[in-house]
Amino acid sequence: MEDKTLRILEYDKIINMLSKCAVSNKGKNMCLELKPSNNIHEVIDNLLETKEAFEVVLRWGSLPLEGIRDVEDTVRRCRMGFVLTPRELLNVCDLLRCARNLKSFMKEGSKKESYPIIYDIIESLFVIKNLEDSIENAIAGENEIHDRASQKLFTIRKSIRDKNLRIREKLQSMVQTYSKYLQDPIVTIRGDRFVIPVKAEHKGSVPGLVHDQSSSGSTLFIEPIAVVEMNNEIKELMLKEKAEIERILSELSQKVLQHVDEIEHDNENIAYLDFLMAKSKFGLDLNCTIPDVNDRGYINIKSARHPLIDKEKVVPIDIRLGDTFKALIITGPNTGGKTVTLKTAGLLTLMAMSGLAIPARDGSQISVFKNIFADIGDEQSIEQSLSTFSSHMTNIVEIIKNVDDKSLVLVDELGAGTDPVEGAALAMSILERFYEAGSRIIATTHYSEIKVFAMEREGFENASVEFDVETLRPTYRLLIGIPGKSNAFEISERLGLESAVIDKARSYVSKDTVKFEDVIQSLQSKTLLLQRELDDAQRIKKEALELKKELSEKKYKIDSQRENMIRRAQEEARQIVRQAKLETDSMIKEINDIRMKAQEAASIKEAEDIRKRLKQKLDDMDTSEEIVDEREGMVAAEDVKIGDEVFVTTLSQKGEVISLPDSKGEVSVQIGIMKISVPLNKLLKVLNKKKESKKTGTTNLISQKVYSVASSIDLRGQTLDEALYNLDKYLDDAFLAGLESVRIIHGKGTGVLREGIKSELKKHRYVKNIRIGDISEGGSGVTVVELKR
Q1: Residue 631: its pLDDT value, please?
Q2: Average pLDDT of the residues of the chain
């Protein structure tokens, strides 16, 4: 890619914005060195990496890259045999800690399947915990070593502290002795040696070595003879301390050297992860999306926004090229956005080829080009001179030499700066040359001749930037398929130019030109109207599809819940049958034991008869192949009377009819304490079940309970003893019927009945959980009980 193109399209500004999103210096350098690639496979891989980074940032905020350092220089110095400084060792420690944190982060959950590219990078990192611990235990700061870095260092520093204390004590006593000779009664340090400030005139009164004097010369800093030897000892200890520190640093540097390849690998890969996070943060800041890419020269950018224009002010545009037409000719007034359209198309293509997300709507298409050529000047320039024309022509000549079918050509104001007739003719010829080379072309112009040329030539398409004549302002919208109108007469009239002057000007324009401009105006108006209607239709269609989807999801959820309820009921019935079988088998076993133990034939015969009868009952009970339908014994409620027991199919609950059908065909039904209106076709009438003389035992009892036990019991108005008795009986029936939850209606009142019932429920053998009813269930006047299964 030509550097000139990158400069013209302001690619460097995008890269600078990207680098500010990186954390480490090496990551920033990777951003600054990013260049577009013309290899489609490489572009696809880079965009996949960016997409993964997007997902990581959206879900986790970022990778744990806190405290990462670039240790490239440190690694190089280590290879050369230098002893590393404490600061360099700390940077190595931070890098190793970051690698360890990254590996721990990636092991959590199923990140391998969700982020395979980033997972592989992190999985390749080396964790060197022993080296990390060694540095952390030895280095306290950028210029500080821990006392415990070695036993010898600890001993030396302890000796230094002890001797310092003894010297200070000695000098403090001397300060008191020589106080009249001292400038100040203090102990200070000069050149790593303890001294006292003595007045110059009393120099001979304090025997010792002079190490310094004040700027005025009135004070001498003397080291008394009595502490010279002690200061010498401290100096020796400090030399030993320095030697020990150098030994520790050298030892740590050797450990780093042993793992220098792994550290270098971690440094490179963690910086690359920082680079990926920078790409994702940059894209999210600009509301970017990941485009689809191709190498067919096809561009379809939806709602494209120039990334260097304030996102609150920029007007999105749709740019298409390379499908039904290969050349797009944009016309329209100055300051209308033609040049911005050129730069947007070029810059977004460069960004995608660099593996960056682009500020456009999802589903946009970008083509990978071998070269992008741009000749974009300042269309706001007042003077167009021969030198300007020559400069543009020089660029065009270079483009013609290098253009091919893998090129994108962006040309602004082609043919401007010379005679309009010659300029237009030259522009058409140049466009034809670009087209014959197979390149994709986006060009801007003011010439009407080029508009007609684009309408007549196959593979060319007109476009215009919209201009509002009423407000004299451009809308910056790009209208593909319609050539632009200059609007010079309309703008002049709005600005107050005399009508006579404008009419005279119109007379100088050929009738064909006027007619052509009027056709353009008509096309623009109709296109805008159709576009608005299309937008409204698409919006309504989208809302309808969303509503349809929402209703389908609700229907699916309701059907699933109903199937689950029926399945649970069937499973519960089977469980009851299995339990009954187990109990019966146990009874049969006991009978067999009795028979074997019995001595009399009569006892044996009686036991055998009992066994046969039980076996017959067991066979009658076996319903494992047939589950009773919960609606057995019910018919459609074609007519009902007040007091009839009905089954509400929408709620799967039984209730009592309390009013006849109204004009809408709805009847009022009492379910517990609730009164609801239900359409007649949603009710089943409960018939009186015929007694079956042949079926007896557990199965018949369970079946009766299932249909006879209500989902609630009303204990209001009863004494506590009566209520507890009825409650216990009701819970037995409800449990046997297989109900999952029931409502106990006790009312609010004084609270005595409620608290007594609550106390009983807490210790009842069938109760799993209790809670106060919500507003729709009766509030604090109702307790909802969840039964054990």
Answers
A1: 55
A2: 80
Residue 474 to residues 182, 396, 648, Cα–Cα distance (Å): 86, 29, 64
- In angstroms, rounded to a whole number, what is the distance separating the alpha carbons of residues 283 and 18? 9
Q: Are 671 and 655 in contact (CB under 8 A)?
A: yes
Please report how the helices 386-402 and 420-436 are oriented relative to each other, as an axis angle in degrees rounded to 10: 10
- H/E run at residue 360: none
3-state secondary structure of 354: coil
Cβ-contact 117, 49 below 8 angstroms: yes
- What pLDDT, on the 0 to 100 scale, is given for residue 406? 92
> What is residue 141's three-state secondary structure?
strand
pLDDT at 358: 93
**What CATH class does 695-789 carry?**
alpha beta
How distant is the alpha carbon of residue 264 from its chain centre? 31
User: CATH for 3-128+259-285?
Assistant: 1.10.1420
Neighbours of 155 (CB within 10 A): 14
Cα–Cα distance measured from residue 127 to residue 265, given in angstroms and rounded to the nearest whole number: 11
Which residues are known binding-site members?
A: 332-339
Helix, coil or strand: residue 478: strand
Distances in Å between the Cα of 359 and the Cα atoms of 75, 308, 341, 351 are 39, 10, 14, 10
Closest listed residue to residue 208, CA positions, set 168, 238, 174? 174
Question: Using only C-alpha atoms, what is the Rg of the chain?
Answer: 46
SS3 for 165-215 is HHHHHHHHHHHHHCHHHECCCCCEEECCEEEEEEEHHHHHHCCEEEEEECC
Give the residue among 73, 58, 62 at the shortest CA–CA distance from 98: 62
17 CB-near residues (< 8 Å, 6+ apart): 282, 307
Q: Domain 292-505 is in which class?
A: alpha beta
Bridging pattern class, strands 460-468 and 473-480: antiparallel
**Helix (H) / strand (E) containing 673:** none
Q: Is 33 exposed, middle or buried (0-12, 13-18, 19+ CB in 10 A)?
A: exposed
Q: Model-level pTM?
A: 0.59
- Fold adopted by 628-688: SH3 type barrels. (2.30.30)
Nearest to 320 by CA among 302, 335, 334, 342: 302
Strand, coil or helix: what is 652? coil
Q: For 544-578, what is each residue's pLDDT tens digit?
A: 888 888 887 777 778 777 777 877 877 777 788 77
Residues facing 129 on adjacent strands: none
Say which amino acid occupies 601. A
Pair 294, 367: CB distance under 8 Å: yes
- DSSP of 279-316, one letter per residue? HHHHHHHTT-BPPEEESSS-EEEEEE--TTS-TTTPPP
Q: Which residue has the tokens 């959980």?
A: 769
Between the CA of residue 457 and those of 453, 454, 460, 479, 772, what are the distances in Å?
A: 6, 5, 6, 19, 80
Alpha helices in 304-371 (DSSP H): 338-353
Region for 633 from its dihedrals, namely left if φ exceeds 0, alpha if ψ lies in -120 to 50, beta otherwise:
left
Tokens (6 digits) for 256: 């780093």
Positions in the chain whose pLDDT score sits under 50: 379-386, 514, 599-600, 622-630, 689-703, 705-707
Six-digit token string for 621: 């009970």
Count the Cβ atoms, other than its own, within 10 Å of residue 96: 27
Known binding positions for ATP? 332-339
Domain 149-253 has CATH 3.10.290.10: no
Cα separation, 364 vs 361, whole angstroms: 6
Candidates 280, 355, 354, 352; CA nearest to 319 is 352
DSSP code, position 688: P
- HSE value, Cβ hemisphere, 13 Å, CA-based, for 22: 26
Taken in order 80, 83, 87, 88, the sign of the CA dihedral is: positive
For residue 391 the two structure tokens come to 């400069």
Q: How far apart are CA 453 and CA 442, in angstroms?
A: 14
C-beta of residue 476 within 8 angstroms of C-beta of residue 465: yes
